[in-house]
Amino acid sequence: MQKNDPYAALRFKEFNIFLVMRFAMVFAWSMQFVVIEWQVYSLTKDPLSLGIIGLMEVIPAVSLALFAGHIVDQKEKKGLLLKCLLAFSVISFGLFLLTWPEVVLGWSSNKILYSIYFLVFLGGFIRAFLGPTIFSLFALIVPKKIYPNAATWSSSVWQMGVVLGPALAGFSINWIGVHWSLCLVFAFSIIALISLSFISKKPILNPKIGENVFKSLKEGIKFVYSTKVILGAITLDMIAVLFGGAVALLPIFAQDILHVGSEGFGILRASPAVGALLIMFTSAYFPLTKNAGMKLLAAIFGFGICIIVFGLSSWFWISVVALFLSGVTDGISMIIRQTILQLKTPDHMRGRVASVNSMFVGSSNELGAFESGLTAKLMGTVTAVVFGGAMTLLTVGMTGAFFPKLRKLDLRKDIEEHEKE
What we know:
There is one protein chain. This protein is an all-alpha fold. It has a single domain, classed as MFS general substrate transporter like domains (Growth Hormone, Chain: A, Up-down Bundle). It is built from 16 helices and no strands. Helix 1 (13-44) packs antiparallel against helix 2 (47-74), helix 3 runs antiparallel to helix 4 and helix 8 (228-243) runs antiparallel to helix 12 (316-344). The radius of gyration is 20 Å and the shape is globular.
């Protein structure tokens, strides 16, 4: 194996442009979600309303996920991504208008609330295509032999967006209000569009253009199910995120439990991503490919412990540290999972595999938000968070027992094979 080069992927110009585009997109989406969470809870003071935000996005995302994967594998990736970013820009501008007092003058709180839910619902359709398209475009920009390094940098930039978006959202709500915060979201969506224009069109590597959609979907599902390492990684992360979605309840912790206001909310919301970002930059120098399966299981177990500590804490800085450490463990999990998907997925099936991943893992964030909101309403906020952390620990134990190939996974051999190509 060649000596590790922590900057290997950054030596490709288009990959750097891709990182700028991805950062702007993730920043805008993350900031928008946090601002909308704050606005909705301010309108309703009902924890279930926070869960409904996630539910509104996940319904169309899950419904279209498999069909989106088929379309992504059949189409040119840059053009498809351009349409996704343009549609997101339209939605972000719509949310900006909905929070403009002069525009919604005379509207009831319920009418504003339902309009927000509707735009979030439309955003779910974009989500169905966005993840698989980015995943597929990524693979066409860099050589296979540096996928692990590229996945680390791509995930790091994703986390930077998740760090800075929520942090700026919390502070900007306090400084300039919800309305102008959403104007910033729209501005970053335009930056993402402009950045993408500097990436060239890519070839379509699927040899089965025009294949029957149901046959195509069946092939994608069959591949994921038969590749136990991918299935195990997706299952583990899906259930862990589903029950560990404490971040959806952060407006409640910030306003009603820790009493730290919008600035404290921004710090809490950014803490997990800061931890994840730190571990991702570190992993560029110290790859996580050796004994990757055990590291994945250990990381998600640690994530569950952190969620329980956060739920039980009534001290702001203990809560911040618990969320920070949950980000560290989640960052390790994300890097390993993305590397598994990139190394184990054939080029002509990337859209469909990414769609299955998005359907179960990506959408589990929103389903987790709904689960957290529902359980918080039924059993109380603190109990709901502790319950979610405990379920995460149980999931790790069961996954380790039922997926021995994942437990024994070592990715160094896969990397060596790609270096020979």
